[in-house]
Input
Amino acid sequence: MFGWLQRPVTISEKLEGHDFEPAHADYYAGAPNRPLHLLLQARTDFLSVWRVGDFKEKVSALRIMGRQVVVINSPDMIRHVVVNRHENFERKSPQMRRALEYLLGDGLFISDGETWKQRRSLVNDIVHRNRVPTFGPVMEKTASEMVERWSSMADGAEINALHEMAGLTAEIISRSVFGNQLGHESADAITDSFSSYQSLIDSVNLGYFIGFDEGLPVLRTPSLKRSVKRIHDLIDKVVEDHLAGRGDHSSMVDLLIRRQQRNPELNLDMVALRNEAATIFMAGHETTAATLTWAWYLLSQATWVEKEVHDEIARVCGDRVPTIDDVPQLDWCRAVIEETLRLYPPVPILARQAKEKDRIGTVDIAPASLVLIVPWLLHRTPSLFPKPHHFRPERFLGGNRPKPYSYIPFASGPRICPGMHFGQTESILCLAILAQKFSLRLRQGHKVEPLCRLTLRPKGGLPVTLHRREA
Output
C-alpha cells in the first residue's frame, strides 16, 4: 500500500585480485534542497542518504520540516560533543528512545541523567575488562559446541551465518549474564523475535520532525507485541531461574543482585533488573553477532586475508582449540575484527538530542535539535582512512592506530559501550575457534546488501556454505 514511500538503494561491490571493496550503498544523487525526499530515503535505508561531499571532516546542518539536524564528522568536534559537552549531549535521540523503550524499559542503553549515572557504574563494574577472562571458558565451550554441530553437517551444507552467529552469541551472553544455558530453541526464538522487532520499528519517528520534541510512541501492533513478549518471557525465565538458585553464582546477574543488596539506593526491583539484564543481553549478543557475520562475508571474498588468519591460528595454537589466553597473540584475527567494525559498525548512527542551545564549530545548536555522529560516515572518510571503502585489515597491524575519535564502533566518551572489551574478545576468540576448522563461502550469486535498522545487518541474513578445513 505504501510502496511508493520506498526509495531505491544501489549497492556497490568490487573484487579485483587482492583489492576488495565490499558491499556499500552508492553515494546519494538525489536533487539538493529536498529534505523530505532525504527523510524518505532515510526511512528506506539510512546508509544511502550520504553524498560524496558528506565524507569529509566537517560539521554540517540542515532543517527537516522545521527541525534542525546537525551531522558531526570531525574527530575534534566529536570529542567536543561526547567529552567536553557530554552533559548537554548525553541524551539519546527520541528516535532511539522510542524505538527501544518498549523492549528495554529504562535500561542503560537509552537512559540518561541520574538513572544512567547509577546504572552505568554498576554495569561497567560487571563487564569491566578485568572480568572478561572469567568468561573465557564460557566463550570457548560455546564456540566449540558450534564446531561440533557444524562437523555433523555435510561438507558444503548451507547455513545462514547471521542466524548461526546470533544463536552463538545469545548462548554465550546467556551463560555469562545468567549462568545457565539458553538452549538452541530459545536462542533461535530470541534471534527471530529481535529480527522481527527491528523490521517493525520506524527508526525515523516522523512525530519528532513535525514538532514533538520527545517523538511519538511506537505503535504497538499485535506483531510487535508478540515479538516483545517472546523476548521478555525468555529473559524473565532465565532471571527467575537464577533467583531460584538454578544459575551460576559468578554470573553477571548474581553480581547485579549482590550489588543491590549492598546498595539498596540503586532501587533494582524485578522490573529494573529485567531491564538491565535485557539491555546487556540484547546489546551483547546482537552487536557481536553482526560483527562476526560481516567478518565471515569479508573473509569469504578476501581469501588472501583468510589465509593469513588460518596461518596465524596454526602458528599460535597448533592443533589445540584456541583459548582466551591466545587472544593477545592473534593479531590478524584482531585486525580482521577491527577492520570489520570500521566498515560495518554494529550501530552505524550515534544520535543525540541537545538539551540546551549550544555551539559546535561554527554551527549554533537549537534546543532539542538532533545531533548525529555517524560511524558509517566517519569510518569511510578518505582523509582519515585511505581507500576507505576497501577491506584492509593491515590498517590495524604493526601498532597502527587510527586518529583519536576517528574510529568509534563502540561510541566514545562517557557513553562508550561498557561491554566493548567483552565483545571484542568474544569476536576474536569465536572467529579463531570456528576458522580453525571451517571456511565459509558466500552462496554463489547472492548479493550482499547492508541494511541499517536499529543495528547494521546484511539484508535477509548471509547465506553461506560450510567447508571443513584439512587438518
Notes: The radius of gyration is 22 Å. The chain has a mean pLDDT of 86.
